[in-house]
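Why do we care about 3D structure at all? Because function follows from shape, and shape follows, mostly, from sequence. That is the central idea of this module. The next example makes it concrete: a single protein chain, its amino acid sequence, and then its structure expressed as tokens.
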Amino acid sequence: MADDRDRRDTDHDRLIRIDETTQSLQADVERVEKKVDCLDGKVANLRIESSAAVEKFRSYSKSVAWLWAVILAIITGGAAALVAIARGGLRSP
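And the structure:
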């Protein structure tokens, strides 16, 4: 009889430990879910920021391309003028 009572007490203690462990794991899962939600928000913000950065870069790269085109036009135009002068192409009337 005493063995049956000890066994029931041990089973009862085991069930209590299992319940406590389950509650602890549920709390851990809830904390992880909150962190995942927070990280999802951060990822969404980073996507928005990166899209904005890409658009800025594209805008700047277009501006830089136009600037280089103007600089090269001035340089090549200036070089063409110097070649014309050297050939005597610019004579006063």
